[in-house]
Batch of 2 targets.
Target 1
Amino acid sequence: MIESLPEEELREMIDEGKEIEVVCHFCSKKYVFPVAELEEMLRRKKEGPAGES
Ligand SMILES: [Zn+2]
């Protein structure tokens, strides 16, 4: 889900400086992602797939 957001979209949300809410399409659970979390995701995207560092 949010992990699949394009990098530029993540960056925009970080620039706005506010946490975002995402509702999962599969289980309807609501997730809140603080800016720090978004930055972490952006960093991971740049570094490539997990476990391949
Ligand atoms: Zn879910």
Target 2
Amino acid sequence: MTAAPEPARRPAGTPAPAASGPRAALRAGLIGLGAMGRNHARILSSLDGVRFVGAVDPAGDPHSAPHGVPVLREVDELLDLGVDYAVVACPTALHEEVGLRLAANGVSALIEKPLAHSAQAARRLVDAFEARGLVAGVGHIERFNPALQQLRTRLEAGELGEVFQVVTRRQGPFPHRVADVGVVKDLATHDIDLTSWITGRGYATLSARTVSKSGREHEDMVAVVGSLTDGTMVCHLVNWLSPLKERFTAVTGERGCFVADTLTADLTFHANGAFATEWEALRAFRGVAEGDTVRYAFPKREPLVVEHERFRDAVEGKPSEIVTAREGLRTVEVSAAVLDSARGALTARADSDSGSGAGSGSGGPDPDVQLV
Ligand SMILES: NC(=O)c1ccc[n+]([C@@H]2O[C@H](COP(=O)([O-])OP(=O)(O)OC[C@H]3O[C@@H](n4cnc5c(N)ncnc54)[C@H](O)[C@@H]3O)[C@@H](O)[C@H]2O)c1
């Protein structure tokens, strides 16, 4: 039910008003009212400059999430209301279908991560939005985490010197709602996106192993080792099989190590010790010593609010840093390479076990995947 009289509807695809002068509210919709969708509903209902006009979920609204807006069953009903943009938070397997429908109707979209279930689907989405000059973003929310924003700013300022290694760990228990993709596409895409973003480098090569223990079609544990285009080493451990929740990013370089915890939004710097050792035997060893540890203080705004503000500004035509659909595509491509590598390793092991020779040192699939 609408809480207040509706303003005149702007047909879908009509350009948003110019940024100067009093701001006319953008009309926004939401597609999917599940675990993530209800958070989007909360933000959309109070976002300055935006009028939240309706939400779509064929299952209705079990959480009283949409704050007085109509809950619709079909995307077309939302399009009939007239929207400038929509947030897509339905299951990943439906992102392509829903996104293409929005693009065909001239509606910009903030699509939850991962952009799509496959690289081909992600590419079709990028093409559709770019061809119509629409704004398309991806909900890689870690980029808006204050700890990672601080980390990136400090890396860009050269505080670490040369970067040697990025390590991430994203471990936790099983989320029963995710059934359409495995942990690589659902969770490791966060690690792939944030690693590229904080370093400003793409992936050059990687090798991965997966484990499937939950009895579902998809993997639920992955280990990835790779290198970025400048040679920086990366390592990601991501799973749904740990009875603890961890969101850890460590960047080690010439001057020490930054550690970001994106659960608490804390950033800590462990500096290399600067003192000269008097122990002659150690003088020849050029490794590091422990120095000071600093935990930084900085404002901690809710990442989802910042993500929405940036996207709204982009739809209004203002300069704004969003995660573009093209960047989201690249992340899906890297996640597909992770799965290719893991499959190659499994095949090599099966061949080796069966004594066919491949994978037993005489050739066979190479689990190292080149990305550039
Ligand atoms: N950015 C993040 O940190 C983050 C966190 C969680 C989920 N997500 C992403 O959000 C998306 C949804 O995940 P979730 O955890 O909320 O899943 P969920 O299963 O809790 O919710 C999905 C909702 O979509 C609805 N739905 C199904 N078909 C639909 C359709 N055709 N149109 C509209 N709605 C439909 C379902 O009824 C359900 O309410 C996924 O792509 C997931 O990867 C992102």
